[in-house]
Amino acid sequence: MRNQGIGSWPARRARMTPGRVALSYQGHDRTYGELRDRAYRLASALAAELGVRRGDRVAYLGPNEPALVETFFAAGLLGAVFVPLNTRLAAPELRFVLEDAAPAALLLGTGREGAGRDGDGLPGRHVPAEAYEDLVAAGSAAPIDEPVSRDDVCLIMYTSGTTGRPKGAMLTHGNLTWNAVNLLVDVPLRHDEVTLVSAPLFHIAALAQTLVPTVLKGGRCVLEPSFDVERTFELIERERVTVMFGVPSMFGFLTRSPRWAGADLSSLRHLLCGGAPVPLPLIRAYQERGLTFLQGYGMTETAPGALFLGAEHSVDKAGTAGVPCFFSDVRLVAPDGTPAAPGEPGEVYVQGPNVMPGYWRRPEESAEVLDADGWFRSGDVGIADEDGYVRISDRIKDVIISGGENIYPAEVESVLYGHPAVAECAVIGVPDERWGEVGKALVVPRPGAAAEPGDLLRHLDGRLARYKIPKYLQFVPELPKNAAGKLLKAPLRKRYG
Amino acid sequence: MRNQGIGSWPARRARMTPGRVALSYQGHDRTYGELRDRAYRLASALAAELGVRRGDRVAYLGPNEPALVETFFAAGLLGAVFVPLNTRLAAPELRFVLEDAAPAALLLGTGREGAGRDGDGLPGRHVPAEAYEDLVAAGSAAPIDEPVSRDDVCLIMYTSGTTGRPKGAMLTHGNLTWNAVNLLVDVPLRHDEVTLVSAPLFHIAALAQTLVPTVLKGGRCVLEPSFDVERTFELIERERVTVMFGVPSMFGFLTRSPRWAGADLSSLRHLLCGGAPVPLPLIRAYQERGLTFLQGYGMTETAPGALFLGAEHSVDKAGTAGVPCFFSDVRLVAPDGTPAAPGEPGEVYVQGPNVMPGYWRRPEESAEVLDADGWFRSGDVGIADEDGYVRISDRIKDVIISGGENIYPAEVESVLYGHPAVAECAVIGVPDERWGEVGKALVVPRPGAAAEPGDLLRHLDGRLARYKIPKYLQFVPELPKNAAGKLLKAPLRKRYG
């Protein structure tokens, strides 16, 4: 095939295993042969009806569902670029992202029915959820084989930055392929895996650590629109799930459920956990059920795996994120630019075939994080032990990780500043048993302003995705600053954290 | 690391699993940490003592043993090119290959002790087997990290051609890496594999289908200098071998041994078989022991996997070589250049990241087999069934495959013609229960010559590798030719085959 990208994968899989089930969704199965045919149909319809061409963006706004997966592969068949949108974004956030990505087509999924017709203000040409099946039916199942190389951009995934302005990380077909290869080196995935995909596919971890490697191996993805404790137990038992990906809080919710003790977890083989280190008590709770975690460290820009901690070291190296993935490299750089010695902190740099070529239309921000040798500056600080196992100790980037979602305080603060009662503000992360961290806003009110904390939180509602809205908001008389007037978050965390 | 090639693999593995055993050989184990250190030592010594530089060839002449594996990785660390030599070659054949490869260093292994000193005529700078450990000890274990890309040539492997002149297929680090990735997609190799490496590593199948993927996964290779039935049973039982590669005749020998019935084969998980389709009775014999074959089709030039037949189809698709490997493509081209329809024969073309960039210093022969799009012409004929499973039906190339070794009749004939009693000759393959095929020479004696068939066979001895010497040699009154005087082998096969 001339298509060396991921768009060709349903066809490559269907050469080998046309009759195996690729996707299960709400009781319906779709085989690899069907997935291939539907991807061809959708791609030909996108080209014919919406004029999608090589390099054009094709956005999808919806939960985990077959149409999202089909759009991912169909875009790849055309050499177009898939843009999965975070369904949790508030309308102004979504508008910003769509204006930046400027997609040739925006497909609206479940939960957005009618959105395309009632003109809810989203820019671009829409395919309403109701029109999706007609679109697929309008297309041809004849093979499409556009020349696509592994260096071509496969998708753009938006990540908020420390500036508060979301930016699109471009990931190539090669980036996603090599991440899957790194995973196959570390995890003996089989062709009969049943992978529960309930973490949102608009995040890199779910897309790249569950969907992509499962399709590569010819396994079955059980798609779920969202994570739900009861439903997770039900699916594990009924579908005989073998692979699960989640953030620590998801795995924590399961242990606190009344169903935990009696649940049949015997089908599970691999628990992939990302976003934050798994706390030792959680490791123990699963160990008692004969289950170990596969952990790691990564980010959207590295597609995502950079470090990996295998099952055999989940206890003795608990709290670390492991060692570099096989085909990737990680180094820790001390503030003076020299390699950090074991035990000493250093900024985490990542290199390898999984590292993005840059941010979409952001040459300056790309140059800030990528050097000429392809090393990506993560903005996180790590400390390696004598065996090379890296513990992520701090973030140079000001970011809160809450239930696996990255929250950038700068973004929340900029919206808070839009309220007339706010003289100064700072958002910090505070520990939370369920979510790892949650946001806390500290606000110096403008003298004479009559607003209450609740008024400010309501101001955020609708302007920011819900998960970004601080759980706590507290008025304070002043915020600590250094001599140059720069806000100091460390003392704030110490005092209010 | 700047080294993205296979030379970096021992170091990459040692980041993850320094204490796991990489190689077992005659009761001695070597861990990944030791393999990394010894590869560094050998590489630094090759550079310092023998002046090996990037792009230089480093040849190894010896059986499967740790020094061969270390030389492979050490060459890769320097960006040098590994040239494994077939130990079965006769002196004149070996001389031709060495003159063609012009290695900066030739390491002599077990069985060639003293060869470097007594000047046996091999060109190039030698490292006698006795000097090997001193060389390693002279080197430094400090990390070496030369910039090596996956597009750089990793090794040159010689393959005789239809012209009778061996040519070196250049394989890049990427070629071997992608072949291993294709294998991981098809076979769920684990980190605890114990791989018996008794097929010779100077052939692509053993190197690329056993050693390379096992190191990638962090498993253990049990190196054996050669295949021996008794010893194979002994090793399977003692080392708890999980993966074996062989040609059908090797697997056939095992079933005919008196040890077969009582052997403990319970550790075996994957039987990889190449060179020729596994006959159905052999499939059945192993099935009775709960074992299925993984088969395929490939060649040196495709590093080697092109087609793969998984365990689940080993019976219903027996006799075929399967479907294209995941990241590779295969098409069948009819004589008029159009795609061959299912059921119709076509020449097998292979494309993908595993296809060689060309033959060493043979631009014309490279251009003959590789087109501008990277499609490699195999010279074999295949017929696909309706499901895309390809049966290799014939060879456009005149080649005999005997016990997994390719014998090119043209090469044997040219040596036969060197005997004064030979007026005309032709070598054909005849079926053989043990070896699949063996060679049979048909000779028209020169009028008045007094030589017997045995004289001619003795003439070949020492001039050709033993495995190339025909098992049968028969005098015939004439050889069939077409109107243009071209020798016709088909009627010969019909009459004498």
From TrEMBL, chains A, B:
Residues 12-360 form the AMP-dependent synthetase/ligase domain. Gene3D superfamilies: 3.30.300.30, N-terminal domain of ligase-like. It holds the Pfam family AMP-binding_C. Residues 411-486 form the AMP-binding enzyme C-terminal domain. One of its GO terms (molecular function) is long-chain fatty acid-CoA ligase activity. NCBIfam families: PRK06187.1. Its EC number is 6.2.1.3. This is Long-chain-fatty-acid--CoA ligase FadD13. Belongs to the ATP-dependent AMP-binding enzyme family. SUPFAM superfamilies: Acetyl-CoA synthetase-like (SSF56801). Keywords: Ligase. The keyword Ligase applies. It is an enzyme of class 6 (ligase). It comes from the Bacteria.
